[in-house]
Amino acid sequence: MTRGNQRDLAREKNRKKLEKLAKGQKKDDISLTSRKERDAEIMRQKQLKKQQEKEAGSASSTSQSKPK
Q1: Domains in the chain, number
Q2: Please, what is the Cα angle at 47 between 63 and 33, to 5 degrees?
Q3: What contacts 28, CB < 8 A, 6 or more positions away?
Q4: Mean pLDDT in runs of 10 for the chain (68 residues)?
Q5: Cα separation of 34 and 39, whole Å?
Q6: Which pLDDT score is estimated for 63?
Q7: Small EDRK-rich factor-like N-terminal domain location, by residue (predicted)?
Q8: SS3 string of 16-47?
Q9: How many helices (H) and strands (E) does the chain have?
Q10: How far is 19 from 12, CA to CA, in rounded Å?
């Protein structure tokens, strides 16, 4: 046998690589479509809140302007 421990070293390297990849993955067990829907709803809520703050800010700034 001329390969020596090359096969074992390759297996060990691959195992470490797979462990590193698995460590970074989320494990919330929801499908891609449901995750997209959830994220879209969160973004809609954020946009609505931002729009309301903008409207409230512009309404208060116009009432506070000083006449010349």
Answers
A1: 1
A2: 170
A3: 35
A4: 80 92 72 91 96 88 60
A5: 9
A6: 57
A7: 1-36
A8: HHHHHHHHCCCCCCCCHHHHHHHHHHHHHHHH
A9: 2, 0
A10: 11
